[in-house]
Amino acid sequence: MNTTTLVDFPSHDPATGEVIARFRNSSKEEVDAAVSRARASTQAWQALGFNGRKKILVAWDAVLTKRLEELAALVARETGKPLSDATLEISLAIGHLDWAAKNASKYLSPVSRNPGLIMANMKARVERAPYGVVGVIGPWNYPVFTPMGSIAYSLAAGNTVVFKPSEYTPGVGEWLGETFAEVAPFPDIFQVVTGLASTGEALTSSQIDKIAFTGSTRTAKRVAAAAGERMIPTVLECGGKDPVIIDKDANIKKAAEFALWLAMSNAGQTCIGAERVYVHHEVADHFIREIGAMAAEIHPGVNKNYGPATMPSQLNIIQSHIDDAAAKGAKFLIGGTDSVQPPYVQPTIMLDVPEDSLAITDETFGPTLTINRVHDMDEAIRLANATKYGLGASVWSRRNGEKIASKLVTGMVSINSVIGFAGIATVPFGGVKDSGYGRIHGPEGLHEFTYLRSVVSERFALPIAFTTFKRTKFADRFITSVMKFLH
Ligand code: NAD
Fold first, then answer.
1. What residue numbers bound the domain in which 276 lies?
2. DSSP state, residue 300
């Protein structure tokens, strides 16, 4: 379908398919105009300084907090997730916005550097300058929390932002734009352009100075290629295939309870959700018994444990992963090849799944989990790392958690807990390999939206000059002797 010619598009209630509202499919011209307006506002936004920007971002945070219930209802309606999950998601986003607003000055202010002995007559400092206009492209699974990791940190650093929300959650995107406008001292600091993939493409190829993309690895590669054409930097937050590793000394009941939630909540549509379990063979039966009993109590539906698949096309991928695992000999603890019952997917846990199955190699993004037994933790680590992804991981062990965690090729890891790193505003969020690069959140998330500028100046003139064609023989002899003395 050529999506560039459509004037508007609908958003749907994923549970019923009912149209909620229609939104503008922003054209290339409209995106370019938004980016130009953002550019025109950049200087004034930067001139407010850290304190001025903090006041506005904190005021926006207050609006989000005051109207949390209203935003949660909208998130629940557009994504299909339970209201309580939507509330939790927004609460995390509020925490990040507040942290970025209040800490930008601390982590982005200029720092002086030692010029060294040879250059002792100079003063040196490193500044962090905002890029200018940052384009943010978001997914639908956490339509507030996920883009906020780029929006809040970009704005706090002094950039203006043009945000293209997912076509599945345009209403949430617009709501964010409208509430920001209520507290903004002047227009175009944070703008939202709704639209389909073509709007995302237009934003990527517009005159933005940096792109922060969250979504699938497939789209991320296109975004990176387009950004490469213009030599603009990117942050790519992409898919995952996160492992849960369970050692024989783990608290099995707790590991089962948390792994189940991590796999099934939000209908499994979590980039850092559990998709694979590697459990020590000595405790595997115990773990499987516990998780099986708990999983039997979990049900999808309206106001149940989790909602429908937000994106109907994902159901085909989930079905293909289940079918492939079954054909390759996997056994089902819960669910089966009939688990996909549109628009819902019943909880599905597969045992002894061959490592070359799609359910092990590719992101399923559904309420499914594979459980494979391992002989020891070395095997668990090897299998956990044998993936093209490297986003998050969860490790369960009373004594060996740190050791196992240190050997995982992932951007984030939780020990005896799950996804704690998403809620702690001070730690960076992001992955390696096909899960992307760059970081949002924490000091590194603020750094991400600035470039480095080294500024040096003369404090006093030296009697001998080196950076001139008038350099003397004495200067040559002097530098040679000093280097021999020092090194
Ligand atoms: P997607 O790649 O289909 O779409 C993401 C966004 O990109 C949407 O706004 C879409 O309109 C836009 N887009 C599509 N084609 C484009 C193009 N050619 N150029 C520019 N923009 C384009 O992803 P999705 O289905 O919305 O999200 C699910 C994926 O996101 C999963 O893989 C999930 O793991 C990942 N995700 C990652 C994180 C993270 O932080 N690592 C967080 C949430 C989701």
1. 242-424
2. B
